[in-house]
Structure formats: structure tokens, C-alpha cells
Amino acid sequence: MKYIKSKKWQINENDVTPENLFNKRRSFIKLGAASIVSSSALVELFAKENIPVKNLDYKKDKNLNNLKLNTYEQITSHNNFYEFTTSQGKVKDMAHTLNTDNWKIKVDGLVKKPMTIDLDDIMKKFALEERIYRFRCVEGWSMVVPWIGFELSKLIKYLQPLSSAKYIRFETLYDEKMFPDQARGAFSTISYPYVEGLRMDEAMNELTLMAVGLYGSKMPKQNGAPIRLIVPWKYGFKSIKSISKISFVEKQPLNTWQKENSNEYGFYANVNPNVDHPRWSQARERLLGNFFKQRTLMFNGYEKQVAHLYKGMDLTKDF
Ligand SMILES: Nc1nc2c(c(=O)[nH]1)N[C@H]1C(S)=C(S)[C@@H](COP(=O)(O)O)O[C@H]1N2
Ligand SMILES: [Mo]
User: Fold this and answer.
1) Which atom belonging to ligand 1 lies closest to the Cα atom of 194?
2) What's the pLDDT tens digit per position in 18-71?
3) Which parts of the chain fold into alpha helices (H)?
């Protein structure tokens, strides 16, 4: 590995498992010394080979809970991203049609000044930090991911919503050229654009993250490049990908999965082992890479930080 340890395109060696290194080494050798001086070629190769390239600067998470991370390979090869396909293993091979150049986010609704913001500007404004979070899909699988991003609260303070704004609403980009399932029109799997929302106090919670990367590397397209929401105490579908619009609103937004099937999916979607999905138990989950299931934790293990948000609510009704 010595010869790839250059400052510009250094990989985070902690993040690469021994068998990973062993298998990838053959491809480096094939490349030959000449190609190795071209950093962009190497970056491309690394991405294809599922090795994160450390190209973000961020403050490391101390990982006080001692969570064991899933590998970069696991996190980037099992995805839910219906805009491409419902086949979780195939998203990574299709996501290249998503073009994240010059990414913009439209901001409107109950806000001091509606505007369109440039992702590049945002990246300069907010210092990035790593957040190692558990992530639990409503389907019963989970993973532990070292996300990179900044607190949504910082962005909200910068955008200055009006006091009449009670909820924040997000939309994923709508572009039929980039997302094949959107191009299927009436035959698409779900309706687009994908929509999600949070109550303002949930959005301002210190855990709520706008993520722009993982494993020190810019967000892989299959994981929702270039910027997505991460709400670790809620089922994964709340963590909307590839965000192109943010609105501040008075009424609770109708999120995509509630719209698709309100008997099975609600607005709050807090991880809760005691409230089963109508078609399966939510008491246990399978961590990616594990054979045996493990217990699901109330609020996905973030009870201390978020339980107060739901005082007085009936979590069996507001699921
Ligand atoms: N735009 C959009 N965002 C989305 C989804 C999607 O299909 N489209 N799937 C959701 C679901 S169900 C999950 S579990 C997570 C998966 O994130 P991952 O692929 O990074 O694991 O993204 C969520 N965000
Ligand atoms: Mo999910």
C-alpha cells in the first residue's frame, strides 16, 4: 500500500479491511507505475473498486458508543433508491446517471428570503464533521455508517425561516434523464419527486444531519449524492437523498411513503421495537454482514437525545 500513500488522494487505511486490500492490490499492480501519477485515474478506479478516497476535511467522531462500522463496500452496495431501481444490489451500477455537478437547492416557503443556494457555497460555509450513526431501515436491516456532514440546525439558522414555519419539507431532484424510474411515468414504482419532512424541533435536534459524504469520501451516488438528510432515530426512508428543494411550511408535509401507503407508513417513523409494521415485526433487525438478528433499540438507540420530542404523544398512533 505504500505507493498510494500520497497526500492528495490518500485513503483512510483504518477503513479498508485486510481482505479488501489483498484483493484490490492486483488491480494496482496491473495499472503500472505510469498511471499512478494521475490522481484522477486513481480516484475513478478506487470508486469502482469500492475503496473510499479521502477527499473531505472533517472533524472525526470520537465514537463514544464504540459502534462497529459497516464496511464501505457494504454501505455502498446495498441501497434503497427507488429513482433507480428497487433491486438493492443494483443501485450502485445504475447510479452513474445522476449528475451532481453545479448542484443547487431551491429554498422557498415561510422563509425570510426565498433563494437558490449552491452546494459549493454551503460546503464552504459549514465545517464538516463525522457522525457515526446507527441506520435502521423499516424493512428490518440496519448498518453503522460514518457519515460526514453538518447539522441541519446550522443550515436552518442560516436560511432564517419565519416563526410561522412549523415543518421543513424536502424534495429529491426530479429529472427523468438521470433517474430511470422517474422516466417510467405512470408505470413508475412510486410517485416522484420523493418528499420527506420533519417537525421543526426534530429538524433542529443536534443529531439531525445534512450528509455530504461517508468514510471521509464525498457521498457515493447510490447513497444520495451530493447531499442528503440523515435522521438516525427514524426509519431510513425519512433520510431523503439527493435533495434539490427545501421548503418551510405551516402544515405537516405528506411524505412519499405515507402517500403511498398510510396504513403502513406514517409521518413520524420513529424506530420503535414495540410497534410492528402491519406485515412484519420490528422487534429485531439484521445488521448488514451479520447472520443473526439483533434487538432493535427504542429510537434506534438515541432515546436520551430525542425522547423528549415526543412527550405526551401516542407513538402507536403517531407511528
Ligand atoms: N430519494 C430517495 N431517498 C431515499 C430513498 C429513495 O428511494 N429515494 N429510500 C429511503 C430508504 S427506504 C432508505 S432505507 C435509505 C437508504 O439509504 P442508503 O441507500 O444510503 O442505505 O434511503 C432513503 N432515502
Ligand atoms: Mo428503508
Assistant:
1) 1
2) 445 445 544 444 444 433 334 555 655 676 677 788 889 999 999 999 999 999
3) 18-36, 39-48, 72-76, 91-94, 119-125, 152-159, 200-204, 256-260, 303-306
Domain range for 142 is 13-310
- Measuring from atom 12 of ligand 1, which residue has the nearest CA? 237
Report yes or no on 285 lying in a domain: yes
Residues surrounding ion ligand 2 at CB below 5 Å: 80, 137, 236-237
Atom number of ligand 1 nearest to Cα 223: 20
Q: Mean per-residue pLDDT for 284-297? A: 98
Place of cell 419539507: 169
- Ligand number nearest CA of 95 is 1
Could you tell me the CATH number of the domain that includes residue 227? 3.90.420.10
Give a yes or no: residue 5 inside a domain: no
Does the pLDDT value for residue 280 go beyond 70? yes
In this structure, is residue 44 part of a structural domain? yes
Q: Which residues line ligand 1 (CB under 6 A)?
A: 79-83, 137, 172, 194, 223-224, 236-237, 239-242
Q: How many domains does the chain have?
A: 1
Query: Can you tell me the distance from the alpha carbon of 295 to that of 33, in angstroms, rounded to the nearest whole number?
Result: 49
